[in-house]
Amino acid sequence: MPALAICATMESARELGYSVQEQVSTELDDIDSLVRQYQARILRYVLFSIHDQDLAESITQDCFLKAYNGRASFRGECSVSTWLISIASNLVRDAVRTQKFRFWRNFRQTAADVTELAGILPSAGSSPLRAMLAHEQAGHVQRALQSLSAHQRSIFLMRFAEEMELQEIAAAMNMKVNTVKTHLHRAVIAIRAELRPESQKGGPQ
Q: What's the whole-model pTM score?
């Protein structure tokens, strides 16, 4: 390829990179638009992580403020959504370390299949009727989630509630993909054990 053509190609790539970065910067500069676009997803993730409506709303607000104030540090190495989830995850871990929470208790054990958890956990497309019908079973899942470590719970929710890819989760958690897989595998085993009927606990996995 002629030298001039190579230079032109490189210049076009740089311009494209700047264009994408400028678009992201503009998105992060408009906090109202940022909140409108991502608030529902971030709040859902936080709420399922801690199961405290007031605290979840507070953490969600803090997440957007932190993102807005730190927008200059965003390098575009992941999507804005993944970046926000990462911030929210850190805020949730901080809150869990410093506060005590009341979790749902005295629920009847259920034998929910882990492969169906993605259908149990609320998602952006859940209808009010579907959410209502899933409420009780989701309660059992919520209780089981509290048996997980902070990393396992975050990764489990990102994968099943937010339907994030493993690479996205790795970026959000600042982990290697294999480490994410390990945490996810352990989380699934722990959830399955928690949701087994009392009569089956202590038996083969």
A: 0.61
